[in-house]
Amino acid sequence: MADSARPHLGRLTWPGPAIDAGFGSRLASDGSRVFAGSPFGDRVDELTANGEVNPAGAGAAGSFFGAGVAVIDGRLWVGAPGAGELRADEEIVASEAGL
User: What torsion do the CA atoms of 44, 73, 91, 23 make, to the nearest 10 degrees?
Assistant: First the structure.
């Protein structure tokens, strides 16, 4: 893909409640979408090409939702090790203590 054809996100400001939520510590992309995990804030956000930050999923407090983030075959996969969950598009697909 030529540089001129790549989407440019510019500078984004996360509208989260805490500066230490770990925003951006986990990133995933499928070439057209970018997702940022905030495992200490238990959420994942989608960063859009027009500079918006939209919620893409959240977990319970202490779940560390977003500690693992991947996009596979168009599905957003999110790990929440504090809850022992693995989700694909908000559906729990595996659960186990310490997962």
Answer: -10
> Is 90's pLDDT higher than 50?
yes
Q: What is the pLDDT of residues 65-74, one digit of tens each?
A: 999 999 999 9
DSSP per-residue codes, the chain: --GGGS----------S-TTS-TTSEEEE-SS-EEEEETTTTEEEEE-TTS-EEEEEE--TTS-TTSEEEEETTEEEEEETTTTEEEETTEEEEE-TT-
* Token output for 31: 């070439």
Q: Is 30 exposed, middle or buried (0-12, 13-18, 19+ CB in 10 A)?
A: middle
